[in-house]
Amino acid sequence: MTRNYNDLIALLSRGISQRRMYFEDHPRLKECAREFTTGLQRLLERDGRGKFFIGVANGKLVHDGRYLLGASIMGTRLQEFAGLLECGGFLFNHGLQEAEMLAFFSVAAARRRPTENLAAGRDLLHASGIQSIELSPPYEDPGWFGQFLFDKQDNGAGLLDEDSATQSMVSTFQNLFDTVESAHEAGHSGRGLDLGNTRETSEMLLKATRGDVQDIMQMVRYPDYDSYTVGHSVRVAMFAVMVGNHLGLDEELLSELGVAALLHDVGKSRIPTEILYKPGRLDERERTIMEEHSRLGAEILLETPGTSDLALAAAWGHHRRFDKTGYPRMPLGSQENPVTHLINVCDVYEALTAIRPYKKAHTSRKAYEIMLGDEGWFNPWALKAFSDAVGLYPAGSVVILSSGHQAEVLGPGTEFDRPRVRLTHDARGLELAEEGRLEVDLSTHPARVGVQEQLIMV
């Protein structure tokens, strides 16, 4: 069940995306509408509110006067819809009905051209039977709903305070999620993939990895809802490009590596949703169907002009093991692209450390234990390259040190289990002032301080 307002925004984006693929009465879409309306009413009653406003300002989603970075990254569909309606956000009122949400998803999924003005956008919703959702004037307009609905302690003055680097990073990852989602929509409907856009997005990813990797990895976390398939591909691409950078691959190969990782799971777009998002373990029949996604992904890419050999090999072979088992089966003696082995490592590590409908996330230490426990699973070169580039604790992780301090991981150190960190809290749990947030390489720390516990995984 929905737990907070961030989850509601995730549900809105999910519903719009699903409506582009499925008919309005599809069980998955009806479930999404039901979960949103039920979750909305419970949260409004819990907080003593009669309405919920999600605003759009400067390319980001806003709630209670604050940017929602994670929701903004995955909420591009909602932001696009607001732009087409010439509005600055949506006000959801108590009493919203499931049928209204289904209509909202349908209008959002079908709309391709802007309305003439805000009034026309409001008329469009009303004509579709949507009475409990109101459109706000744009953010710059003095009538913007947000300025009347912020919590009393926040007048919205902080909306424009973020630096250009943060705004650029948000834009980059909005493009990443949108690119993978669009590829899955195209694969599902039989349309050709937009490889040109995917390459441009991959190049944006390369530029992003030149900066503060810990900020990037924290930004690409994704919540436990069924668009995790999209988030998974984005994070696999992040890991793959990080390792490629560490190996010193040239720009062209790095770009193609990013494209291959973003599209490696595109075949899942043709797997039945009841299997793809099943909340429990798959039975033998379902697993056989799921394993078809590798072949289906290769077929989708073969149908797309300009597909690189690397992207094709990654889609086909990312579940092939180093000992030649796995799926799809291949003739003995067949050659496999070595970069595919690298994407295989990134794919498995991400899956092990992420939440799934049927499992909790493993710690990074446990993930490595599982991966190292099966000698035939991975190409030793690829596994070593990954561990050297990422370390035991990936950048962006939050850890407790043996000294009692809390810190965020900046990147690997010269010792596998002793990363470079930035202190954020003292041993009593009190947040440190900016000048006290020292950067420490635990590999060279004279007192041999180490990591005691991993609080947040990425």
Care to describe what's here?
The protein is of the alpha+beta class and 458 residues long. It has 3 domains: 5-161, no CATH class; 165-390, Hypothetical protein af1432, CATH 1.10.3210; 398-456. Helices cover 49% and strands 11% of the residues. The strands form 2 sheets. It has a 5-stranded antiparallel β-sheet. A 5-stranded antiparallel β-sheet has the order 9-8-7-6-10. Helix 8 (164-189) runs antiparallel to helix 9 (195-208), helix 12 (251-262) packs parallel to helix 16 (309-317) and helix 16 packs across helix 17 (338-353). Residues 151-161 and 222-227 have low confidence and may be disordered.
Outline:
The protein has 458 residues and is an alpha+beta fold. It contains 19 helices and ten strands. The chain has three domains: 5-161, no CATH class; 165-390, Hypothetical protein af1432; 398-456.
Q: Can you give the mean pLDDT? A: 86
Q: What is the number of domains?
A: 3
Distance, first to last CA: 23 Å
Quaternary structure: single chain
- Number of β-strand runs: 10
CATH superfamily of the largest domain: Hypothetical protein af1432
**Strands side by side in the biggest sheet:** 3-2-1-4-5
Given helix and strand content, the structural type is alpha+beta
Shape-level CATH architecture of the largest domain:
Orthogonal Bundle
CATH fold-level name of the largest domain: Hypothetical protein af1432
Let me know the largest β-sheet: 5 strands, antiparallel
Radius of gyration: 23 Å
Proportion in β-strands: 5-15%
**Regarding CATH, which class of the largest domain?**
Mainly Alpha
* Low-confidence parts: 151-161, 222-227
